[in-house]
Structures are given as structure tokens and as C-alpha cells.
Amino acid sequence: MRIGLYPGTFDPVTLGHMDIIRRATALVDRLVIGVAINRDKGPLFSLEERVAMIEAECAVVARETGVEIVAHPFENLLIDCAHDVGAKIIIRGLRAVADFEYEYQMVGMNRMLDDTIDTVFLMAEAEHQAIASKLVKEIARLNGDVSNFVTPAVLEALKTRFPS
Asked: What is the pLDDT of residues 95-135, one digit of tens each?
């Protein structure tokens, strides 16, 4: 069984994330969404809320693709998380060249930690390349329309955090 790990903070999950998730299902039999516990980033949504969002949004993709998709919170090294879930593939989404430079460095470090785990990069579709969770939160905080960047359920969750 090919198990892939797609890590991130998903604060909140965006249409860009969902694009990568959907496309990653073509590469694996089981996709683990690693929801990072990153206290330094000061997430808008709690870990439980982010996991619930991922599970709700991925349920449809799992049904449509037949690929098992599970959320897995983690706070350890990415390589250790991959070991924990049995992943041999790490999935990373790229939006721009700047993403690649950082990700390239991370791949090198991860390969030094465990050279049996490969990283696969998926480019976000053109219409999703500008979407970043940080920007979505900022637009929502300033009462801007983020409906083109997130699903309706995530939009409602954002509205509870930033009422107009």
C-alpha cells in the first residue's frame, strides 16, 4: 500500500490545499493529512477545529476517489511523523519559485534523516497559486470576501472568528 503524507498547518484549509489533496489521491492508496501543531504560528483555529475541517472537506474527496484520507495531528519532526503513519512519500504543494527554494532545502535535510522517504511536489493549479492561509485570514479579518479561496463550510468558520 502506497501511503503519502501531506503536512501543513491548514489554518484554515483552502481551495489550494484541497486541489493538492485531490491530485495527491492519484499517487497513493492512503493519504494522511498531517495537521501540524505549531504553537509559534499562533493559529486562528484550534487543532481540533483544523482536524475537523480537514476531515469534513476530505470526506467528499475520499468518497469520489476511493482513497482513504485521514487527518493526523503531529508536533514532531516531519520524518518522524512519516514513520509514525508508515508514509514513504511526502507530498508538498508549490505555489511559486520562492516556495521551491525553501522546500528544496527541506527535502535535502529530510533525505539526510531518512533516504527511504521521497518528497513529491505538486504545483497548485493556476487559479489557486496565490491562495495562502495567512492571506485568507488577513482578508477575512478586514471583512473582505474570501469565498473564492475556501469552501462554504470554511467560510462560515471564518465568519464566526471575524463577524462583520
From this structure: 877 778 888 899 999 999 999 999 999 988 888 888 899 99
**How far apart are alpha carbons 55 and 63 in whole angstroms?**
12
DSSP string, 75-140: -S-HHHHHHHHT-SEEEEEE-SHHHHHHHHHHHHHHHHH-TT-EEEEEEPPGGGTT--HHHHHHHH
Cell of 25: 489521491
Q: What is the four-CA torsion angle of 142, 58, 46, 162, rounded to 10 degrees?
A: 20
| In contact, 59 and 66? CB cutoff 8 Å | no
The predicted model scores a pTM of 0.94
Distance CA 110, CA 52 (A): 28
| 81 vs 66: CA distance, rounded Å | 24
Residue type at position 26: A
Mean pLDDT, the chain, whole residue set: 94
- Name the 3-class secondary structure at 143: coil
Q: Before 12, cis peptide (omega within 30)?
A: yes
Catalytic residue numbers, as ranges: 17, 41, 95, 133
Provide the 8-state DSSP code for 151. -
- What domains are there in the chain, each with its CATH number? 3-129 (3.40.50.620)
